[in-house]
Design a protein that fits this description.
Bound molecules: heme C
Largest sheet: none
Oligomer: single chain
CATH class of one domain: Mainly Alpha
Distance between the termini: 87 Å
CATH superfamily of one domain: Cytochrome c-like domain
Length: 212
């Protein structure tokens, strides 16, 4: 019998926690049950309002300018030549920027990023049959069309940076060097679909494939 109280209390807590507070947003500020000196609440910390006035600083502004020579993340000047993907005439550039070395590690990085950001639509092999196709994203092109196979690297880079029609831009998710890594991996995918027997140089692999 004495368990009845416990069970009732448990059921009440369970019901309230499961049903009562699901995603409820309060518009009124929370009640402060404990005194401010005992449990200081972040609500009441002294803070200037954006674009407000301040008597603390000599210029009377609450907003501070970034320290001189501050560089926004990923915007270091040194990276400038990576940003554009265009040649000196302003056309989409072929090949990779001089600062980029396409090695296995770089490709591997591109592969990871590709799997996260591109494969859902373009698919693991780049034929445009990613999972989103089943949900109605029909217009995803295959990388293995002549047009995309011969497209300059700079143009692929530009599509990643700025998006194209229904494809979102990825500039906020991939740093310039990462975009180039993805471009390199797209090239690898295209190459993989265009293999010729003469490309296999390893003797053991030739034997496995039954090549002379
Ligand atoms: C939400 C689905 C989606 C994702 C994710 C996506 N794409 Fe696309 N992509 C598209 C669609 C749709 C098009 C066709 C756009 C058009 O031409 O209308 C396209 C076009 C392209 C093209 C061809 C552009 C052209 O000029 O024809 C390239 C190259 C490309 N995507 C690369 C990528 C890369 C690399 C990633 C990952 C960083 C990526 N896409 C992520 C949907 C997607």
């Amino acid at each position: 019998m004495r368990n009845v109280y416990l069970i009732t209390a448990f059921v009440c807590v369970a019901v309230v926690s499961l049903l009562g507070l699901r995603g409820t947003r309060f518009t009124a500020p929370p009640l402060d049950v404990f005194p401010e000196w005992a449990f200081p609440s972040m609500e009441f910390q002294p803070r200037p309002k954006p674009q407000g006035a301040s008597r603390f600083f000599a210029d009377g502004q609450a907003d501070r300018r970034p320290v001189q020579h501050t560089v926004a993340r990923g915007m270091l000047r040194d990276d400038d030549h990576l940003f554009l993907g265009r040649d000196s005439a302003g056309e989409f550039a072929r090949g990779f920027p001089a600062a980029i070395t396409v090695d296995p590690e770089f490709l591997q990085h591109g592969r990871e990023r590709y799997a996260i950001y591109c494969a859902p639509c373009h698919s693991e092999v780049g034929d445009g049959n990613g999972i989103t196709k089943r949900y109605g994203m029909g217009a995803t092109p295959s990388y293995h069309d002549e047009r995309l196979r011969t497209m300059p690297e700079g143009e692929i880079y530009n599509t990643i940076t700025n998006g194209k029609n229904t494809m979102m831009p990825y500039a906020d998710k991939l740093a310039p060097a990462e975009r180039w890594a993805v471009v390199a991996y797209v090239r690898a995918l295209q190459r993989a679909q265009m293999g010729k027997p003469a490309d296999v140089t390893d003797a053991a692999a030739r034997q496995t494939l039954g090549l002379p």
